[in-house]
Amino acid sequence: MNRIVDLVWHRLAGLMPGELRQAEFGWLGAPYQHPLLLARRRATLIVNRVRLFAYLFAVLTPLWSIVDFLIFPVVLWLDLALMRFAACVAFASLLMEYKPNGNTLHAYRAIAFLFAIPTVFDIASHFLIASHQLADTPAAIVGGYAFLPFVLLAGLSIFPLTLLENLIIACPILILQFVSGYVRWPTLDWASFAGAFWLLLIITGMSALAGMSQLAFMLALVRQALRDPLTGTFSRNSGEEVIELQFSVTRRSGKPLAIAFIDLDHFKSVNDRFGHEAGDHVLIATTETISRNLRRGDVLARWGGEEFVLIMPNTDIKEAESALVRLRHIGFGMRPDNTPVTASIGIAERIDMHAQDWKTLVDKADQRMYRAKQGGRDRIVCTDGPETASQPASSVASH
To answer: Which InterPro entries match (predicted)?
Structure first.
């Protein structure tokens, strides 16, 4: 079984060389395991493209009334013009009201409204036109209305969607198309209908592949943008985004959020004595050690040089202190001279310090880290009391 999985993966990897890792291929099928920052960026992109699509439809939908006026009877033209005006207003409202906020459900609602508007228009116009006896040129123009489902399904290709999301959006359009054929059963040209429906299925498949390909490319780009190229941890920019997001989430839920500022002691001496390449190896080994021992949900970001920030959602000050003491006892790795890497650590927690914004929380953890350095390094400071400023981490552990 494993050999089959590996074979399938290598085949897929060959189609998208260098874009995805094996563990990420599942993210193309369904959105449930997407990393938080990827989900936010994808939701923003989806809403922006919905707004672009809505702008295009808001402009083109009323313009087609000119063709309707030249072809259809006045009564039918007026009814269609009113429907087109209503659709134009709906598209314009979608364009004006829906702004990207990084929320996936918000993006789903936007794309649902985008596809619902022309679908409703298609159904209503079909029944309206069917109530009139048309022949020759008008009947030929009516055939153009049948292309709307094709346009909608082809439009899916501009969105970075998973396979499951593509199917959920496409299925109602396909079902409605099938139902419309069933309603016209007595007069339906089944050969023509079957060919058109088969073409719809092909377009759906192509749009799904295009959307998944966009998503794969986006995954690769986001991964590169989020990660520090040396250590593989989150970069400072992405770390700030995670803190800001977690701060908002925990403030709404009333749960704690702890931040630990970690500064490796005397790291400059490693670069001075052994060279920057040796220093890089120390940084890589240290972050690998820390990452292996993080709790589920914790996020490590490289803040700059030898400074790191550990983001600990749903963690109060005591739990954060215990977790950092445990990390320190495990160790941060070894220097080139076989002496242990030590760190000065400052911890701050949102509820404990009544922080009103995430920057204040990070600044407090930073200040406490400097107090740990001033107190002799190789220690943890998690309060502002003078009795803990010079307390080594091993002493904190005994409390």
So the answer is: Diguanylate_Cyclase, GGDEF_dom, Nucleotide_cyclase, Rev_trsase/Diguanyl_cyclase
